[in-house]
Write a structure and sequence with these properties.
- This protein is an alpha+beta fold.
- It has a single domain, classed as Hotdog Thioesterase (Thiol Ester Dehydrase, Chain A, Roll), CATH 3.10.129.
- Helix content is 21%, strand content 37%.
- The protein is built from three helices and five strands; from the N terminus they run E-H-H-E-E-E-E-H.
- The protein has a five-stranded antiparallel beta sheet.
- The two termini are 18 Å apart.
- Pfam families: 4HBT_2.
- GO terms for molecular function: hydrolase activity.
- InterPro entries: 4-hydroxybenzoyl-CoA_TE, HotDog_dom_sf, YbgC/YbaW.
- It comes from Paenibacillus polygoni.
- Its EC number is 3.1.2.-.
Length: 134
């Protein structure tokens, strides 16, 4: 299942070049992932209650088209694949004319909050991913 988060580029997100700062795209992606977790019924507190956390270990992002103030963007987040303790979410940032502004592949790992070590992906998260494995 994929989610779509709508947002508007604000003046504070613009850098000296007059477009969205590269680091801000990472925030947009994070907001999109949080939206995805919430839509899947996996808010942070529920994950903790089940004895695990998620941590981002790699983001591979492509900046395709600049975004400017007042652009209306959509952050699309969808599950791509899952391994033993890691999983990959594919994310795309589209503008209002359906042009891809950025796309990313984000790898996260499930972790035991006490030991701070990776642990197997729980079924409550794994079930959202296709059958193919990492």
């Amino acid at each position: 299942m994929k989610t779509e988060l709508q947002l508007i580029v604000r003046p504070t997100e613009i850098d000296v070049n007059g477009h969205v700062n590269n680091a801000k795209y990472l925030e947009y992606l994070e907001w999109g992932r949080e939206e995805w977790y919430e839509a899947m019924g996996l808010p942070y507190n529920k994950l903790l209650q089940e004895g695990f956390q998620t941590v981002t270990v790699n983001i591979n992002i492509n900046y395709r088209k600049e975004c400017v103030q007042n652009d209306r963007l959509t952050v699309i987040t969808e599950p791509e694949k899952a391994g033993n303790s890691s999983y990959v979410l594919k994310q795309t940032i589209m503008n209002e004319t359906n042009v891809v502004c950025a796309d990313a592949v984000v790898t996260s790992v499930t972790m035991d909050p006490s030991s701070r070590k990776s642990k197997p992906l729980p079924e409550m998260l794994r079930k959202f991913f296709p059958a193919n494995q990492l």
